[in-house]
Amino acid sequence: MDDADARLSARAYALKRVILLIDGRHGLKPDDKDVMDALDTAAVTYQLVLTKADKVKPTEIAALTQATSVAISKRPAAHPEIIATSSETGLGIELLRAEIAALA
User: Fold this and answer.
1) How far apart are the first and last CA of the chain?
2) CA distances from 49 to 12, 24, 43, 57, 86 (A)
3) Which positions ≥6 away from 71 have C-beta within 8 Å?
4) DSSP string over 11-46
């Protein structure tokens, strides 16, 4: 366990959920998986939010959401709901706000 993992583990009790932003044009990248590995190890619950959903076709964002859901299904700390958002169109923003408000 490196220093960053140790600091994360020490704060795990205070974190209700981490919101992990994933570029909806590209999906999960190796760096995203590294972050999820660290969160899983530290037992910190996290939720994925796909950003820039307006930059791809609705069918593509739906397919990416499904593929991402399958990819995180075996991860112990992953929250199962994935939210697709767009700051341009407002897609998913109210749902994301409601999720965050429910955690506060």
Assistant:
1) 30
2) 20, 9, 19, 17, 10
3) 28
4) HGGG-S-EEEEEETTT---HHHHHHHHHHHHHT--E
Output phi, psi for 59, to 5 deg.
-65, -35
What's the pLDDT tens digit per position in 46-86? 999 999 999 999 999 999 999 999 999 999 999 999 999 99
Helix (H) / strand (E) containing 48: strand 46-51
Taking the model in full, what pTM does it have? 0.86
Domains present along the chain, CATH in parentheses: 3-103 (3.40.50.300)
Give the amino acid at 3. Answer: D
